Amino acid sequence: MSDGNFNRALLPKSELSAGIRAGKAQMRTKAEQAFLETIDHFLPNLSAEKRQEMKEEFMNHMRGK
User: Fold this and answer.
1) Can you give 1-58 as a three-state secondary structure string?
2) Which residues 6+ apart lie within 8 Å of 58 measured at CB?
3) What is the Cα–Cα distance from 45 to 2, expressed in whole angstroms?
4) What pLDDT, in 10s, does the model give residues 1-58?
5) 64 band by pLDDT with thresholds 50, 70 and 90
6) What global pTM score does this model have?
7) CA 40 to CA 46: how far, in whole Å?
8) Which residues make Cβ contacts (< 8 Å) with residue 43, sequence separation at least 6?
9) Cα(first)–Cα(last) distance of the chain, in Å?
10) How far apart are CA 8 and CA 36, in angstroms?
11) What is the CA radius of gyration of the chain?
12) How many CA atoms lie within 13 A of 9 on its CB side?
């Protein structure tokens, strides 16, 4: 008889949630790359420090912070 605990191995795997997480990570990577390419195109003389600061700010917006 069960005492309220269950074995998680007996539950069906959630392929959907794993796929969604993987897709989100992939899209964040693509967005970051597109942002950096856009900066390089429109602001080619931008300093490395400012470029990094802008990238971090963009990624914070992507994460919803």
Assistant:
1) CCCCCCCHHHCCCCHHHHHHHHHHHHHHHHHHHHHHHHHHHHCCCCCHHHHHHHHHHH
2) 31, 32, 35
3) 67
4) 455 666 666 666 677 777 888 889 999 999 999 999 999 999 999 999 999 999 999 9
5) confident
6) 0.70
7) 8
8) 51
9) 47
10) 42
11) 20
12) 0
Query: Locate tokens 């195109």: which residue?
Result: 41
Position 1, amino acid: M
Query: Do residues 32 and 63 touch, judged by C-beta distance below 8 A?
Result: no
- Extract the tokens encoding 15: 């392929």
Please, are residues 39 and 51 in contact by the beta-carbon 8 Å criterion? yes
Q: Which two tokens stand for residue 48?
A: 């490395």
Provide the token pair at 33.
Answer: 């790359």
